[in-house]
Structure formats: C-alpha cells, structure tokens
Amino acid sequence: MSPHSDRTRLISSATHRGQGRRPVNPPIERASTMLSDRAETMRDDAEGPTYGLDGGSAARQLRAALADLEGAADAFLVPSGLAAVTVPLLALTRPGDEVITSDAIYGPSRRFLSRYQAARGVTTRFLPAETDAAGLIAAIGDRTRLVLMESPASLTFEMIDVAAVASACRERGVLTVLDNTWGAGLAFKPLAHGVDVSVQALTKYVSGHSDVLMGGIAARAPACLRAVADTIEDLGWHVSPDDAWLALRGLRTLPLRYAEQGRSGLIVAEWLQARPEVARVLYPPLPGSVGHDLWTRDFTGAASLMGVVLKGGHTAAACAFLDALSLFGMGYSWGGFESLITHETHQMAYRDRPPALEGELIRLHIGLEDPADLIADLEHGFAAFRAALTLP
C-alpha cells in the first residue's frame, strides 16, 4: 500500500517511471476492432483488449485509479451514475429476493426497483427516511438479499451509520451497496467501512466539468466482482474513450476541487442558516444539521450539495426565487465547477412517507465561484421570494 495521500496518488499514477518516453495523459484510442499478429493470441487478454468493449488506455487507467481511490480490487465503468446503481442490483439479486432501502433513495434508483425489479420478481421495502441503523438492521428478514444505502440521502440528506449496517448485514449473509456520489470515493470510503459494493456517478465530482455521463462500481470480494463483470458483459455496456479520458482528467484534480467547493458550501450554508426566510439547512457538515454527528465521525471532507427548506411559500414564490438569480444555473446534476439550483418540493410526493417540511424545498450545489458573489446573488433571490409572498 502506498504511503502517499489520495491527492498525491491520483497524480503520481500518471507520472510514475519505468514506462519510457510518453505523454502524461494516455492516448485516446477510438476503436471497435483490435488486431492481433497471430491466431493463437486473438483471445488472449494478456495481450491487451480483444475488442473495443474491453476499453482502451484511458478506460484502463481510469479503472485502476478508481480502484486505488476506493481501496478496491477492481473498478468498472458504466454509461451513467444510474447504471452504476442498477448493475449491482441486477448482478446480485434474483427473483424472490428482497431489497431494503430508504424512502429517500435517489428517484431513478427507486424507479428501477419499483418498476423493473418488481416485474422481475425482486421486491423492495422502502423504510422511513429517518430510520437509523438499528431500525434498518431490525427490518432485515429471511428474504432480504441486499441493502441499498445512500449517506447522505437524496434531497433530504439523512445520514446512517454505514459501518454498523454493513457489519450486521455481513453477519447475516446480506449484501450491501452504497451510492457514494456525495462522498466521491474521497471523503468517505465505503469498502473500508465494510460495504460490499461502492458506486458513484462519475458524472458528478470525478469528471467535474458537466460534460460527461458515467458511473463507477468498485468492490473487493471476487464473487461480487465476477457478478458485476458478467452483468456488464451481458448487457454490452461500454464508455467511450473520449469520455473515459475526460473523467480521468477530472479525477486528477478531484481532491482540490472537492475541498474548495466544500469550504464554499459551508460558508453559504452558515449564511443561509441565519436567514429569516430559511427554516432549515439540510447539510450534514453544518453543526446542528441532520446527521452532523455521523458526518463528523466518518467523513474527511464535504461535498457542496445541500437542501434548503424555506419558511412557508408556494411554488410560484419558489420559482420567483430561482428566476431572480444570475449566478446559479438552473439545471439538474451537480459536482461540476458551476453553482446550480433546483426546486425539489414536488419530488417529495414520490415517497411513501413525504416529510413534513416547513415550506418549499430548494437544492443548491455550490461551485467554484467566489462564495461572497453567490451570497449576494442569493440575496436577490430572497428579495424576489418575499415579494412573491405578498402578491394577491
């Protein structure tokens, strides 16, 4: 094991010696067909990829760097963050199995479980978003095959004691998968906390520039690795060499961008917490916020994605708030260099047990802009919000 930090290893994997004269970054190899010199070596993986689906230099280097970052035996690339969640669910469950997850799970993951997996004979129990580790463990039954977690949870940012859940699941022969996009494989290490499979949307912080769709899957156990590899092979999924190259480039600077955006995120969160228009800021790094104790114990850094519950209001007022901003882009996704904002109240209706919120729910992603400028922009948003509340 290298004694160097994540920050150093993500760079040194590109510069280590013994490879001769070469560019710092790998070549982009656009290829479907791979040629061999001799018939007997055409199927020999040791000679390199046998077909374009196996991936070229950029994909192989990205996989190796992700595996190292995650502390995994191997890592796989799939075309989206959602695919990173669905592949292990497909690979590790069979008809008659049960999955346990949170009511606050990422919406498209929930849709896959409720639609595709249900039709396939895999049932899902969605526990209340506030369920703690003890409650989740108590819910495990004879048919439970897999527990799918997010920590923090989607949109409302509940935290869970991942290590406690993973340990109890291992004792019971139940598999665990964690969507670690918020932790980015950097601030939280799922496999080191006993999780079987760590997944993340490389679309977000790893690529970092809002120009790539990709997911990553990392694991240690040979059985999990084999099942995931077989499923990817059977589905015929592949990421383009250009996208792999872009994600690898983003990965090199991940620690710096993540840390800077986390610092700005906390500045903005603290300012929002003091605003009279705000009921709650849902951001685990913020003292007094949901899950702060678990974040402090388990995480070494913070993403800059948070929820903001306004005091009262309605859809029109929330839209006025968003429309008044000039520095926050209105668009889905997060983890890029730019700040983004979305109105999320309507998504609570998809849950079995919608949370009791004091008002409209806004999601903020803080980018690399000066936080003072972002705060000034949010001032304009709050002025528009107040004005909309007084309209007849």
UniProtKB/TrEMBL annotation:
Enzyme class: lyase
Cofactor(s) this protein requires: pyridoxal 5'-phosphate
Taxonomic superkingdom: Bacteria
Coiled coil: none
Keywords: Lyase, Pyridoxal phosphate
Protein's recorded name: Cystathionine beta-lyase
Gene3D superfamilies for this protein: Aspartate Aminotransferase, domain 1, Type I PLP-dependent aspartate aminotransferase-like (Major domain)
Organism (species): Brevundimonas mediterranea
UniProt similarity note: Belongs to the trans-sulfuration enzymes family.
Keyword hit for Lyase: yes
Reaction(s) this enzyme catalyzes, per UniProt: an S-substituted L-cysteine + H2O = a thiol + pyruvate + NH4(+); L,L-cystathionine + H2O = L-homocysteine + pyruvate + NH4(+)
Keyword Transmembrane helix: no
Modified residues (N6-(pyridoxal phosphate)lysine): K204
Pathway: Amino-acid biosynthesis; L-methionine biosynthesis via de novo pathway; L-homocysteine from L-cystathionine: step 1/1
EC number(s) on file: 4.4.1.8
